[in-house]
Amino acid sequence: MQISSSQSQRQLISGKVGWGWRQATYHISVNFIFTGVYILITSFSRLWFTEGSNLQIWISALTVLGLVVGIYTGKSVVQVCRQNSSYLFSRAQLLAIAAYWLFLLAALGATSEKMARTIISMWWILPAAIFIGIAISLTQYSARAKATSKSQLVELPSPDILSVITYSDRTVLVSPSSLGQQPRQFNSLILTALGLFVWTMFDFLPSIRAIAAIAFTASGLTGFFTWQAQLYVLTRTMLLEFSGLWGIGADYAISLQPFSSLALIKLQEASGELSWMQLTGSNCEMTLPLAMTIYPTISSTTNKDNKEKNNQSQDQLSQTIREEFNLARQESERDSLGLSSILLPQGAGILASGVFIALGILFLFVFRLPVSMSAASAIAWLGVCLVSPAIARFCLQIVAPNSLQSDRPNYEKNHLHPWEVGTAMLLISLFLSAQVPESNTYQLLFGKALPMLSLISGWLNISIGVCILAFVRRTPLWNKNF
């Protein structure tokens, strides 16, 4: 686990990094323990009637190994919550995950269907034990911090309240609090794993199982992100950073030199329920992403409370930006025609997202899909995750050309892009599924390859649609006034 590097040249003046981290670890540990126990119970239920003298030894070894790895990893999770930073896999973790993944593919490609079911059930014991180990470690750290704390308990900020931190170099960092940001980030990691778990462990109808698997996976992939806004007062620059895997993340460096005011614009037809925050100047406008101004609904609160909290967070963000850059305050209501520069690109993105999702569901319901679990389908699942963000960004630029392009630097020349690796994996999955063992020939796009092609098409369309919908919420819009 790596944590985003801090700038040692500056000192903290005001604000508290990771405010609410202990409560965040509590929510994370609860979700991890329930997920881990559920996966273990499901795996044990499938192994209960399996014969094998060494089976119990392997199960015990995997469980102990997973608990040890989880407890060790829990310390890094706590550090991420304390710093309210993004989750970055270390090189050792990536190598271990890749090796474990290759073991699954090798087992599926070299065994019968009955043996494959046993291996898959055993394969999930290690991730489940890791989840439980992380939950145990987080509980211990949280209890230890609570016991050593000498200050009285105070009411912590709501998940929707922003964290504003000021440094000595006149840099201001604005982000959701650790309590509001970190549980979502780690819960999305669980959802991504559950997507593969549903596909490999359940015996529903292939179409239902495929839709459930990609729904979990795409939700986890797009939800695995954090955001922060760094305000550089001396250079009048605002850097918006959205973290994420495989092209989900993006950076936007916005110069505030052309802008003179920060406006809160509400839609008249929606009675002020829909609003956007917009930087305005004499000849240009910049609409900030909705992910920074509108937050997900909290199930434990009423709609009225959520609206009030969103308004508080929105006011806090706008006030911070206005004060640091000396921007005028504006607040107005416009009809849909006056907001066409915002509604048209965002509406086009939402429409494109709906079309892709509907097309993907159609593929998964109409065409024949693979019935049994195979290495090819597991490779296709990962390949879709790697490819879909890049295609989604390309499609969003087509339907919404005024969407701001990311300033995040490209990968080094000697490194492959995620979409290149994903494309190769999808081709490999088609190649494996097209093989006919009896004749040792290949029937590409026909026979055995056609179900896999339908599965890839359905998964890819749904994942692209979900990614487009996420990018609509996280992409600034640039408009030039003539």
Strand order of the largest sheet: 1-2-3-4-5-6
Question: Main β-sheet, in a few words?
Answer: 6 strands, antiparallel
The proportion of strand residues reads 5-15%
What is the assembly state of the chains in this entry? Answer: single chain
Q: Are there runs of 5+ residues with pLDDT below 50, and where?
A: 1-8, 150-160, 297-301
Overall geometry comes to globular
Number of helices: 13
What's the gyration radius in Å? 24 Å
What's the total number of strands?
A: 13
Order of helices and strands: EHHHHHEEHHEEEEEEHHEHHHEEHE
Structural class: alpha+beta
Describe the protein's architecture and organization.
The protein is globular, with a radius of gyration of 24 Å. It is 57% helix and 14% strand. The protein has 482 residues and is of the alpha+beta class. Helix 1 runs antiparallel to helix 2 and helix 11 packs across helix 12. It contains 13 helices and 13 strands. The strands form 3 sheets. Strands 1-2-3-4-5-6 form a 6-stranded antiparallel β-sheet. Strands 10-7-8-9-13 form a 5-stranded mixed β-sheet, sandwiched between helices. Strands 11-12 form a two-stranded antiparallel sheet. Mean pLDDT is 82; it is low at 1-8, 150-160 and 297-301.
Write a short abstract of this structure:
This protein is of the alpha+beta class and 482 residues long.
